[in-house]
TrEMBL record:
It comes from Alkaliphilus pronyensis. It holds the Pfam family CBS. It comes from the Bacteria. The keyword Protein transport does not apply. Residues 83-138, 147-214 form the CBS domain. This is Helix-turn-helix transcriptional regulator. InterPro entries: CBS_dom, CBS_dom_sf, Diverse_CBS-Domain, HTH_11, UCP026546_HTH-CBS, WH-like_DNA-bd_sf, WH_DNA-bd_sf. The keyword Mitochondrion does not apply. Keywords: CBS domain. SMART domains: CBS (SM00116).
Length: 214
């Protein structure tokens, strides 16, 4: 999900059109003291996104639709705690074989790894597949050997908004994020995994928002 933020000039164009519709691009350009060709990309964005209607020989109308803004606002108003699911967590000495079994039994794509109750790693489908290709006995290889470990884990917290979590998933090219609580133990910061936000949670949210149910 890409957040679409209107530029100052695009916002100004909307205000002008709202007030003076129908209005031609020449008139808008002269009000903003720019050329028509400077305005062309802005007007294209605003008409393509449905915020402005362009009628040939008449000019621009405000469509009344600001769906994109509303949508991104709605995504931002929803907390990670509203969409997260229960994480599947194994201990770091669990064998790769047993983690693969859990993956099937729990029907998930990513499993979190904890040591003494604190998050130390993340293991994905591809990590597990790779481990099976190595020729080692996967009954004997502990998951700690193949996981992506802290501090390289990309996390979120329950008060982050849904858009922030979705952007992290896309930017870091991962399928899911542990939802963590930071706890200071013996002067060291430790992470407790209290949930999981995956591409599925985000997709479900998008469907609910589009159906008007969220
Ligand atoms: P898949 O392996 O099914 O493509 P991912 O795209 O989630 O799943 O995982 C790709 C790699 O990123 C794996 O090596 C995995 O350990 C790692 N990974 C997965 N989730 C995270 C995360 N939240 N933070 C850091 N690394 C992650």
């Amino acid at each position: 999900m890409v957040e679409i933020e209107l530029t100052k000039r695009q916002q100004r164009i909307i205000e002008i059109v709202k007030e003076l519709e129908p209005i031609t691009s020449e008139q808008i350009a002269s009000m903003l003291s720019v050329t028509r060709s400077t305005l062309r990309p802005d007007l294209a964005i605003l008409t393509m996104s449905g915020m402005l209607d362009a009628r040939p020989k008449v000019g621009y109308f405000f469509s009344g639709k600001t769906d994109i803004n509303l949508f991104s606002q709605e995504m931002k108003s929803i907390r990670v705690s509203d969409i997260m699911s229960v994480p599947v967590i194994v201990s770091e000495e669990t064998s790769v074989y047993d983690v693969i079994v859990s993956l099937f039994l729990e029907d998930v794509g990513t499993i979190f790894v904890a040591s003494k109750g604190f998050l130390v790693g993340v293991v994905s489908r591809k990590d597990l597949l790779k481990a099976t290709l190595g020729g080692n006995d996967i009954n004997k290889v502990p998951v700690a050997m193949i996981m992506t470990r802290s501090p390289n884990i990309v996390t979120t917290i329950k008060d982050d908004n849904a858009l922030t979590a979705a952007v992290k998933i896309i930017d870091h090219e991962v399928d899911s994020l542990p939802v963590v609580e930071r706890i200071i133990k013996d002067g060291k910061e430790c992470l407790k995994a209290i949930g999981k936000v995956s591409k599925s949670n985000i997709t479900k949210l998008l469907v609910e928002l589009c159906r008007g149910g969220a």
